[in-house]
Inverse folding.
């Protein structure tokens, strides 16, 4: 797991979180518990809809993992920045 940056034209932060969690847990994204059990995905997408505040971040727990979404577009799971495939 290395660093990745969101493409705000094609990706939403909530979808990137789901992809990162699926990769970390080696689980099909459709088999994961819904993200809305941990955080409001729409609010997350609205907060990071553009790169206006690169210093912003949101951290929340998802099952046994700590997830952080950063204003620069990176997604970290348990402190490790996730790279998309």
């Amino acid at each position: 797991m290395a660093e990745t940056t969101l493409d705000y034209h094609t990706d939403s932060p909530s979808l990137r979180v789901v992809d990162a969690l699926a990769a970390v847990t080696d689980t099909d994204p459709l088999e994961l518990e819904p993200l809305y059990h941990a955080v409001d995905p729409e609010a997350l997408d609205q907060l990071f809809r553009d790169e206006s505040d690169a210093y912003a971040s949101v951290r929340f727990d998802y099952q046994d993992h700590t997830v952080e979404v950063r204003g620069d577009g990176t997604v970290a799971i348990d402190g490790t920045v996730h790279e998309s495939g």
